[in-house]
Amino acid sequence: MTKAILLTLGIFTSASVVVGQPRAQRLPEGAVVHRDLAYVTDGHERQKLDLYLPKEGKDLPLIINIHGGAWMGGSKEWGAPLEYLERGYAVASINYRLSQHAIFPAQIEDCKAAVRWLRAHASEYRLDPNRFAAIGSSAGGHLAAMLGTTGDVREFEVGENLGVSSRVQAVVDNFGPTDFLQMDAHRLPNGMVHDTPDSPESQLVGGPIQDNKEKVSRANPITYVTKNSPPFLICHGDSDPPVPHHQSELLVAALKKVGVPVTFYTVKGGGHGGFKDPNVPRLTGEFLATMLQGGTQSVAASGETRAQREARMAWWREARFGMFIHWGPVSLTGLEISWSRANSNPKCPNKGPTPVDVYDRLYQQFNPTRFDANEWVETARAAGMKYMILTAKHCDGFLLWHSQADGYNMASTPFKRDICGELATAAHGRGMKIGWYFSPMDWRDPDFRTERNAAFLGRMQKEVKELLSNYGRIDVLWFDWDGREPMYDQPNTYAIVRGLQPGIILTNRLDLGIGNNDNQILSANADYYTPEQRVGQYDDQRPWETCMTLGTQWSWKPNDAVKSTAEVIQILARTAGGDGNLLLNVGPMPDGRIEPRQVEVLRQVGVWLGANGESLYGTRGGPFRPTPTLVSTRKGNVVYVHVLKWTDERIVLPPLPKKIVQARLLAGGTVPVVQTDSAVTLTVPKPNAQDVDTIVKLMLDGPSGEIPALDAAGSAAR
To answer: Which residues are CB-contacts of 120 (< 8 A; sequence separation ≥ 6)?
Structure first.
């Protein structure tokens, strides 16, 4: 293979995609590099990687750079995007065996071995094993895409660390080949010929690609696309001679077909790299921030900076505790909202026991004469809750307000009153933040997810406009999802929301679809993720909120089992200790009252918060990571240790880098403390221990927020 072809096919930097020889790269001040780490023991000289780490930080998201070079040349020294070190990422750049050393699948086997090695050594190098992205250009883009689409495909998993996954959570593919057999059919007049025996693709698979179609299929990223593939960003010039633009079009279509989120950007007039289009690095930065950091480093579509976003979300971060309300005509049946409705649209997941004609007529009997919005707000206030979210529209399509978009709403019931309007007025009058749960799905609408979806969208977006225009300031819009294709015209829907309520806070669920989960944030427009019916894991990088029922279902259920006060307090403490919020759900009864049993539990929680709220409101989680026996919260120069389970009088914690100047029980009384370089030991006599949550207040000699998250797994309340 000639040097000219090698230069044509892949000497590009991954971040900015600029053609040329390796450029001198500057390490940011304090950053460190670990060079030539062997990811295969006693392996080939090419089976090594370089790992770059920023000066500070733990649980770092990792960008894995894969160099180009036609699978015949190139080096890990080429194009490592070191500019991301200053944004809080770690960067790995890997070498792999070239086609003259071994034919395919050696290259993807090496890339997977490198990912497994990095994941297996994550704690040693301060990496978050759940936040890996692959990035590459040309041949490197091909291998990055292969990493994304093959996931845990076993045939490519060989060698060491086989108990560790080689999956990545995001892929940036810059003009990589995706289906070798279609390259020549779409090449430009001056484009490279790929069907010849000496083409890079033929060299990769060990023979002319047209004579080795089965081998070629194994080497094509498009072969392995499934709904479980991670989100992709794909950039490609429309005048690329070596790799036709059509190659990226094929992969984009395949990803979209199974519901994988993909952003595709065409560089007008762009060749094989050498892009001067500023949108390429901007999109790359925003994509990586959204996928790996929850958008916290990005600039949203509105032009909002990180500091502006943090200011907008400050009240929500400080609130920690909110009320979720699921209600509607379905309360007449005592069954689950929406999910109890029989199916009338095969594109929707509900298969409930209530016949469609029965469920859809329940509104004719819905007359909640004991509904009192002021009473609901006072119940939330007495519980110590700082915001309320009402199901203005659930998946069944019924609207709890007077709407001009759809007659299936409160105005058509015997009650006739506007529930959303009355609750918004009551909340605003009592200083309570108010938000709407809004299902973009409508399982009742016959146009939804059909060829007539545009008609559905018109109605859905009109409903959003009404909710955000008619009731004053709305603080949260709680979008939901149903695991099916998200056909909601997200860009325009987001624009409507942000245009009408610039200060609003949004959940992650508008973008979620097939193969996603509620921990993912797929858009810079989304503000936080939403673990459902479980306490989220510790995450002080991306905002999150656990939504959980006080009973066993979301809407009212007669004689339901209700969580105890102690259970709620411990759930709230565990959520705050993980750096999240708790949105606790009540399901009002058909007459409009919140069930007295639920009200009493909430009242008792409020009494407890009246005495202990300083350890939750306005705090952040940590610095000790949650364990089965304890969690911690912090603000200012204080750490609050919440002991949730006792076996003895002593609490042994990891060492703190700040000096403890005083330790006291929040309920009153001093706590003896022994602080050494190896541990912190607190002693609380049994008579002073609380059954539900014993809170020890540690006052430090400096800001607790400067302490990185500490692994307390070996710690104990003894």
So the answer is: 161, 164
Q: What is the pLDDT of residues 58-104, one digit of tens each?
A: 889 999 999 999 999 999 998 899 999 988 999 999 999 999 999 99
Distance, in Å, from the CA atom of 53 to the CA atom of 92, rounded to the nearest integer, reads 9
Based on the domain organization, do 606 and 628 belong to the same domain? no
| Per-residue confidence (pLDDT) for residue 78, from 0 to 100 | 85
* Rounded-to-integer distance, Cα 49 and Cα 67, Å: 11
283 and 406 in a single domain? The answer is no
Residue found by looking up tokens 């505790």 in the block: 321
Q: Measured between alpha carbons, how far is 340 from 357 in angstroms, rounded to an integer?
A: 13
Bridge-partner residues for 479, per DSSP?
438
Q: With CA atoms as reference, report the closest residue to 666 among 702, 641, 630, 635.
A: 641
Q: Are 109 and 158 in contact (CB under 8 A)?
A: yes
* Final residue of a structural domain among 242, 263, 292: 292
588 and 677: one domain? no
- Spatial neighbors of 177 by CB under 8 A, at least 6 apart, are 138, 139, 141, 142, 183, 201, 243, 247
CATH number at residue 470: 3.20.20.80
Pairing of strands 32-38, 48-53: antiparallel
DSSP letters along 547-580, please?
A: EEESSSSSS--TT-----HHHHHHHHHHHHHTT-
Q: Which residue has the higher pLDDT, 348 or 279?
A: 348
**pLDDT score of 333 more than 50:** yes
Are 79 and 65 spatial neighbours (Cβ–Cβ below 8 Å)? yes
The answer to whether residue 328 sits within a structural domain is yes
Same domain for 241 and 311, yes or no, is no
For the cut 90, the answer to whether the pLDDT of residue 341 exceeds it is yes
More confident residue, 525 or 481: 481
DSSP track, 635-647: ETTEEEEEE---S
- CATH number for the domain harbouring residue 634: 2.60.40.1180
Cβ contact 341:352 at 8 Å: yes
Task: Return all residues near 315 (Cβ < 8 A) that are at least 6 apart.
Answer: 386, 433, 475
Residues 458-505: tens digit of each pLDDT:
999 999 999 999 999 999 999 999 999 999 999 899 999 999 999 999
Q: Which residues pair with 642 in a beta bridge?
A: 631, 695
Question: What is the C-alpha to C-alpha distance for residues 144 and 149, in angstroms, rounded to an integer?
Answer: 9
Q: Please give the sequence-ordered ranges of beta strands (E in DSSP) within 39-189, or none if there are none.
A: 48-53, 60-66, 90-94, 127-137, 170-174
Reply yes or no on whether the pLDDT at 449 is more than 90.
yes
pLDDT of residue 10: 41
Burial 44-65 (b: 16+ CB within 10 A, else e): bebbbbbbbbbeebebbbbbbb
DSSP 637-677: TEEEEEE---SSSEEEE---SS-EEEEEETTS-B--EEE-S
601 and 639 housed in the same domain: no
Strands (DSSP E) found in 441-575: 476-479, 505-506, 545-549
Per-residue confidence (pLDDT) for residue 294, from 0 to 100: 61
**465 belongs to a structural domain:** yes
**How many domains does the chain divide into?**
3
**Rounded Cα gap, residues 580 and 602, in angstroms:** 19
Report how far Cα 671 is from the mean position of its chain's Cα atoms. Answer: 39
Round the average pLDDT of the chain to a whole number and report it: 92
Q: At 541, is the pLDDT very low, low, confident or very high (cuts 50, 70, 90)?
A: confident
Q: What is the CATH number of the domain that holds 98?
A: 3.40.50.1820
Q: Do 602 and 651 share a domain, yes or no?
A: no
User: Taking 90 as the threshold, does the pLDDT of residue 7 lie above it?
Assistant: no
In a domain, 298, yes or no: no
- 576-590 residue pLDDT tens: 999 999 999 999 999
The reply to whether 79 and 122 lie within a common domain is yes
Indicate whether 606 and 632 sit together in one domain.
Answer: no
453 falls within a domain:
yes
Task: Among 292, 317, 338, give the residue marking a domain's end.
Answer: 292
Which residues, 6 or more positions from 425, have their beta carbon under 8 angstroms from its beta carbon?
373
Domain of residue 343 covers 306-615
